[in-house]
Every structure is written in structure tokens, then in C-alpha cells.
Write a structure and sequence with these properties.
6 helices; 3-stranded antiparallel sheet
Length: about 130
């Protein structure tokens, strides 16, 4: 008969042994604290459903003005402008001005790839054991 203390969570090591070579390789490849912080900030921006709708609209529509993005997302122009301001500050989107109009698009192909991969990941709906 086992006690509660004998039961390990699924993510715990059954036998605690550290592989120093593997730890050294992984530690050397690990991004610096500043890079990890920036990465967390980008994923935090992507974690908001409203901002994600704006980004997805730009993924599908290419370059768009605030009015078109708001109409496509079902959000107010004010909410979209606020989202775009945050996304632009973090280099997720960029703006092109033409007279009094401002047109937004995804900043670069890396953002597009990140979103495409995330959509593919969510779409395949893999079975969780």
C-alpha cells in the first residue's frame, strides 16, 4: 500500500539524476534574460483576444486602415487604435501614412510565420493523452 507521499506528479522525476552534459548544452543555448523578457512580451500581446483579432485581420487582409480593421473585427475604432498602438510599439505591426490616412500591416514575415504556425497548431486539434 502506498502513501500520498509516494505518489509523484506526472511531471516529476521518478529518480532525481541530473545529466550535467545535457544541462550545459541547454544552458549555453538558452537565450539571455532580456531576450526571454521580449519574447514573453510578444506572447503576452498575442494572448489578448482583441489584439489577436486585429492581428488575424491583418494576416488575412494585408494592409488595412483602422476603419476596415474595426469593421472586420467587430470592435470600435477606438479599441482597434489602442490595440494597434501597443502592437506597433512592440514591432508586431507597422504603419504607412498616406495623407490623413494610416494603413497598418504585420511588421515582417516572422510575425506572419508565427501566426500561421499558431493557427496550424490550434487547427490540427491533436489528441491530448
Amino acid at each position: 500500500m502506498s502513501s500520498q507521499s509516494d505518489v509523484l506528479p506526472a511531471e516529476a522525476c521518478a529518480v532525481r539524476v541530473v545529466d550535467p552534459e545535457k544541462v550545459a548544452i541547454v544552458s549555453a543555448a538558452m537565450p539571455g534574460a532580456e531576450t526571454i523578457g521580449e519574447l514573453a512580451q510578444v506572447f503576452g500581446l498575442l494572448a489578448d483576444p482583441g489584439r489577436l483579432r486585429v492581428i488575424t485581420a491583418l494576416l488575412e487582409g494585408g494592409e488595412m486602415c483602422v476603419c476596415d480593421i474595426a469593421a472586420a473585427c467587430g470592435h470600435s475604432e477606438s479599441a482597434v487604435s489602442h490595440a494597434l498602438r501597443l502592437l506597433r510599439a512592440n514591432r508586431v505591426v507597422r504603419v504607412r501614412r498616406a495623407g490623413r490616412m494610416a494603413y497598418y500591416r504585420l511588421d515582417d514575415s516572422h510575425v506572419r510565420m508565427l501566426l500561421d504556425l499558431a493557427l496550424t497548431h490550434v487547427g490540427h486539434g491533436g489528441d491530448v493523452p
